[in-house]
Write a structure and sequence with these properties.
single chain, 416 residues, alpha/beta, 10-stranded mixed beta sheet, 6-stranded parallel beta sheet, 11 helices, 25% helix
């Protein structure tokens, strides 16, 4: 088993608030006592896990006994008693009786590292996206089932208590009949973002899938959250997936795209996403009802409801996924973001992986703002295009956007 190929990890919303706790938090220590935890990948988003583990260790819920990374951790970032290893192979050889292994490494390393973790007695926390292909996902799912291990996927937004509130309002008919769901993401990523690692913006490296695109990494939470709200978890829940992929940056993967999903119940879900906006805005998922709308800003756990009766807004707490995994191990609590429930997301990733290369957006419709490595591409009028795509459940080409030279690509859904 190889060691992680780098120290960067998939993006997660930098604005993700500290977990508010809840039922999962209350039982984290549970009957299992202090859990022995190992972290693979201590840089990038691994630093978030270090902070969270420090919080949990102070409460006596966990002990971080070992970390692995080919780059040494920053001084003082890892508890003095935690052993440091260059890779997971060495860590497992010297760290018996682990309860939880957290993997926060580059996308292309997820599959081999996760499979190695599942060969132990530990449960697994695997950062998103789970793996870089549907074939690897199926192998991982089968290995987890055979081992009887819990596998939590790092879609932190799924721990939001707002999701239950959304389920309640739909059941109550507050916004009428649900007619569609859209996910809208407008973020900024500069040139330095694509130079931070050798896998950034890549579809593959030396034949190994990476699939580091806007919908599979930086704004993957938008897709996963929209799917969860729609109750779409398995392959059987999806009737069709179409993709229309573009790039303004000089990269292999997409940075500006529309993914249109139709559920088995014929509900349209349209994800219109870019990291080539003029400014970063909190991403959001919109529920379009016959009698109103609900907008969920998932990085803020903020839900806004608008009907003929007026406008209401509420901010919710969220459960921490590591605590939830501990509760699952200790008392059988259901996983919030299980590997199996990531099946529909992986179908979307596979559609993107197998789609034609992203089309380059003509330079006439791209302007650059900032200097040097801080310069970032801005697609002209992208904000309006994203809004229209989500509202009309249409792709850029169907809307007649002038730079949209592609057509939507339909993905053939495999028989599950």
């Amino acid at each position: 088993m190889g060691t992680p190929a780098g120290t960067d990890v998939p993006d997660a919303p930098a604005e993700t608030p500290a977990p508010a706790g809840g039922p999962a938090a209350a039982s984290a220590g549970g009957n299992g006592g202090t859990a022995r935890v190992a972290l693979v990948g201590v840089h990038g988003f691994g630093t978030h896990h270090l902070r969270n583990l420090e919080r949990l260790q102070a409460r006596g819920a966990v002990e971080l006994v070992a970390v692995a990374d080919p780059q040494p951790p920053a001084p003082g970032s890892v508890p003095a008693q935690a052993a440091v290893f260059p890779g997971l192979t060495e860590l497992l050889a010297e760290s018996p009786a682990l309860d939880i292994i957290i993997v926060a490494t580059p996308i292309q390393t997820h599959a081999p590292l996760a499979l190695a973790a599942l060969a132990t007695d530990a449960d697994l926390y695997l950062e998103k996206p789970p793996v870089a292909s549907l074939a690897d996902f199926n192998r991982l799912r089968d290995a987890a089932a055979l081992a009887g291990r819990g596998v939590q996927i790092g879609f932190q937004s799924l721990g939001s208590h707002a999701l239950q509130a959304i389920e309640d309002l739909l059941e109550a008919g507050t916004i009428g009949t649900l007619q569609g769901i859209s996910a809208t993401g407008r973020w900024v990523r500069d040139k330095a973002y694509y130079k931070r690692s050798r896998w950034a913006g890549k579809r593959s490296i030396n034949g190994v899938d990476v699939v580091d695109g806007v919908a599979t990494n930086p704004l993957a939470h938008a897709v996963a959250t929209a799917l969860r709200i729609a109750g779409v978890r398995t392959l059987a829940d999806v009737a069709s997936v179409e993709t229309e992929l573009y790039r303004a940056n000089d990269i292999e993967s997409d940075d500006t795209s529309v993914i249109r999903i139709r559920t088995a119940a014929s509900l349209p879900i349209t994800c219109a996403l870019t990291i080539c906006a003029a400014e970063s805005v909190e991403p959001y998922v919109t529920l379009q009802g016959s009698a109103g709308t609900a907008v969920f800003h998932y990085t803020e756990d903020r839900l806004t409801i608008e009907t003929s009766s007026g406008r209401a807004e509420e901010t919710f707490g969220r459960d921490d996924l590591t605590e939830n995994l501990l509760a699952h191990r200790n008392s059988g609590a259901p996983l919030i973001s299980s590997l199996v429930d990531s099946s529909a997301f992986m179908l979307v990733l596979e559609a993107i992986r197998t789609a034609p290369l992203p089309a380059a957006i003509d330079d006439a419709y791209v302007r650059w703002e900032g200097d040097g490595e801080a310069a970032h591409a801005v697609v002209v009028d992208i904000e309006e295009a994203l809004e229209r795509a989500g509202r009309q459940h249409a792709t850029f080409s169907e809307l007649g956007v002038p730079w949209a030279v592609s057509a939507p690509t339909a993905f053939e859904i495999p028989i599950s």
